[in-house]
């Protein structure tokens, strides 16, 4: 009987780990870096609820002051090997905040160079490396004194760095240079540069067995695979418009990759075989960005940059099973296990400081133009962010709201036909729930032409 019971227990344990019944622990937490509200949202994955937010600064537009001292553009996240420290990178204030995960309190701040993007602890936890994307180096910080101890020279725009668990090598991608730097951790020297297909990579992640790194190329919609043994590119996958981050999960004994494709509002699931194959395309909320897997592989968490929250994906069924409202414009997302030592883990957190946004999808009247907009209430005023793609390069476009004779914004595209901007003003009618029923409330015209939906380049759905 004892033998049979043991066999049954093992079988049930395996089933539980790969089924929809599995639930993350109440001691675990999901974190998002919220760029517009300058908060870190803290979620309880066992209940799929927001516990509260760590307020690192004021939300926009309150930060627009030369005397402002809080953190601006809370953007990147990393963590220590023991999960006791959360790194928060704010690229507007050039800072690295060290947060005690047990208390949710900031225990130290380091200021680095222009526009840092992401940071991570070395495998032994003795150093923190922060990529200074607005310049050309990695800042090495002592996590005890919070002082910068040295700089590792790179090409322009390092985008992210991660460490092999054997402690020997670090892999750094770039956001401005089409190379990956392989760095000897002990000597802090670059030992090899690997050429890749695009200069813009915001994210990399190891496969669970650490045999490969996968890096995203946001600008061209691809993922590159690199062997950590041969230090060579092993493949490139076409993933889609605005490829942001990726994660891995083990499902039914197979390791799969989950890629957030922001421009399509989907997560794409690929095999990790030698020739990766697309298995599923899962619709999500607006502009999926950060993504991370729970330690037990039972859930995948997806930050919605324009949805201001997190969606919970069950990888066993490839279905979104929950939505958790959070901070504005979440960028990076991480999952940390066993961080709550007791109680509800809500110490030093504030209630949600923002409301839900309104998202508007744009469709072309003719041609292949793309675009989307998001409206957020900021209290006295609203913010209205518009992103336009695949338009004529170096050309001005006017954005109108229905009923307005004057444009609410005029954009000039870059050399790739892309434009993005945020307008702040009293556009209260756009932020009302009943505005969702209005027809053609957003019209994009080439040049200074007056609003005319029939002659527009883009209109809302």
From TrEMBL:
Signal peptide: 1-22
Annotated ranges, domain YNCE-like beta-propeller: 126-342
Segments crossing the lipid bilayer: none
PANTHER family xrefs: DIHYDRO-HEME D1 DEHYDROGENASE, PROTEIN NIRF
Annotated protein name in UniProt: YNCE-like beta-propeller domain-containing protein
Swiss-Prot/TrEMBL keywords: Signal
InterPro entries with a match to the protein in the record: Host-pathogen_enzymatic-act, N2O_reductase_N, WD40/YVTN_repeat-like_dom_sf, YNCE-like_beta-prop, YVTN_b-propeller_repeat
Organism: Undibacterium terreum
Domain of life according to the entry: Bacteria
Pfam families reported for this sequence: YNCE
């Amino acid at each position: 009987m004892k033998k049979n019971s043991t066999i049954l227990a093992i079988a049930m344990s395996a089933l539980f780990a790969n089924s929809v019944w599995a639930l993350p622990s109440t001691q675990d937490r999901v974190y998002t870096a919220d760029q517009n509200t300058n908060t870190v949202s803290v979620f309880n994955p066992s209940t799929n609820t927001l516990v509260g937010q760590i307020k690192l600064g004021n939300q926009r537009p309150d930060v627009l002051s030369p005397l402002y001292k809080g953190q601006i553009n809370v953007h990147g996240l990393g963590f220590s090997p023991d999960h006791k420290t959360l790194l928060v990178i704010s690229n507007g204030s050039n800072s690295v905040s060290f947060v005690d995960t047990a208390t949710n309190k900031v225990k130290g701040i380091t200021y680095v160079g222009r526009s840092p993007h992401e940071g991570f602890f070395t495998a032994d936890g003795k150093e923190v490396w922060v990529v200074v994307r607005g310049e050309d180096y990695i800042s090495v910080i002592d996590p005890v004194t919070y002082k910068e101890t040295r700089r590792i020279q790179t090409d322009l725009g390092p985008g992210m760095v991660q460490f092999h668990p054997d402690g020997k090598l670090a892999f750094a991608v770039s956001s401005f240079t089409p190379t990956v730097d392989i760095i000897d951790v002990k000597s802090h020297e670059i030992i090899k540069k690997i050429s890749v297909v695009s200069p813009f990579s915001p994210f990399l992640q190891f496969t669970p067995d650490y045999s490969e790194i996968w890096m995203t190329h946001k600008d061209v919609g691809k993922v590159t695979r690199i062997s950590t043994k041969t230090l060579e590119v092993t493949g490139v996958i076409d993933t889609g418009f605005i490829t942001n981050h990726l994660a891995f999960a083990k499902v039914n004994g197979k390791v799969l990759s989950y890629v957030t494709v922001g421009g399509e509002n989907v997560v794409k699931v690929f095999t990790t075989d030698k020739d990766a194959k697309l298995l599923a395309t899962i619709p999500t909320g607006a502009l999926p960005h950060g993504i991370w897997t729970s330690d037990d592989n039972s859930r995948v968490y997806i930050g919605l940059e324009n949805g201001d929250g997190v969606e919970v994906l069950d990888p066993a069924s490839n279905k979104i099973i929950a939505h958790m409202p959070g901070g504005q414009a979440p960028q990076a997302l991480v999952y940390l296990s066993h961080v709550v030592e007791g109680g509800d883990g809500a110490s030093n957190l504030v209630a949600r400081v923002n409301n839900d946004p309104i998202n508007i999808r744009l469709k072309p009247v003719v041609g292949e133009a793309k675009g989307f907009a998001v409206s957020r209430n900021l209290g006295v005023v609203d913010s209205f962010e518009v992103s336009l793609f695949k338009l004529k390069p170096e050309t001005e476009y006017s954005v109108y709201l229905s009923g307005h004779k004057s444009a609410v914004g005029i954009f000039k595209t870059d050399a790739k036909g892309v434009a993005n901007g945020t307008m702040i003003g009293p556009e209260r009618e756009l932020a009302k729930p009943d505005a969702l029923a209005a027809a053609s409330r957003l019209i994009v015209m080439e040049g200074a032409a007056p609003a005319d939906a029939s002659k527009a380049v883009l209109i809302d759905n």
